[in-house]
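assembly run, all chains below
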Amino acid sequence: MNIWTYTIIIGILTYLSRYLVTAYANTKTYSETTKKVLSYVPSAVFPSLIFPAVFYKNSSLILYSDEVFAFMAALIISIIFKNILLTVITGISIYLLIIFI
Amino acid sequence: MYQSISTSMNRRKIFFQGIKDVLPLNIPVVLFGIFYAVLCIELGFSSYFAIGTSLIIFAGGSQLIFVTLLTAGAIPWVIFGSVIMNNTRHILYGAVFSKYIEKKNGLWKLILSFFLTDQCFAVSNQYLKKNYKNKFSHYHMLGSGVTVWLIWQLSNLVGIWLGNIVSDQLSLNYFVAITFLALIAKDLGKLDHFLVILISAVCSLIFYNLPLKAYVIVSATAGIIFAFLINKKFKKLLK
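ok done. output:
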């Protein structure tokens, strides 16, 4: 199979995963419980993008590393200030300081 | 006439609010965009391929899976299966977003769906939750979506032109983690959300080595089921 054929098929698969439910879900049929449960989607999805990225290195679970230390600092700042930019700056600057100094 | 000027200003204001809100989340997008383009070139693909995949697919995770599996000689169904698994979280995002844009016409749905990335969902969900009654609130999603799209394409070009300027010592995944951490921080203080976050976090660490990157949808599903159970069984406790 040509690489551009692959690219187009993957493009279509990715687009459909975004489009089908967004465009065709009938929200009027959502029960109150469904609406309530959907409000937890960010809390259910984002941790799975966050925690393995910090606590896994080369497929092994690691409880202490430069990433874990900087992450903990950013976690404390994010809980106290609840500010996206401040959390990002703290997490990245502490990480870069540990790596490069 | 005054009304049409104020309407167009309202639209523009919401569009720019979307751009402003999503900008902090683009630090890892830039780094990943550069990394992706450099990886494509190092793996022997052309710069047209790096740019072409970003224009057509526009999903960093799926693109990385695609090029690494293709280079490793994986058979087509493994490549497509991995991409589908990686994309399953979009279905959850779509279920949330559909209620905000259900009254928009088909063209809007076609356009906005294309921009439904993690970053766009994260910031525009927060905005639309509070402002969905405003008939121009979807311009927020357009602003955040176009911004992520543009930054992703430009960082690909930077990767092609400048080569590997991202140090190999850096963990790119860490940068993604930090930006998403900021988005769930405000919910960490609520007991129900805290428990859902905890369940999803623990599951993601336990199931990380599952094939096809299935840990994302497995952990998200565990979190959603838990949210359903506490809302059914402990409704009174949550109030």
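The longest strand of chain A covers residues 56-57.

The mean pLDDT of chain A is 90.

not gonna interpret more than that til we talk
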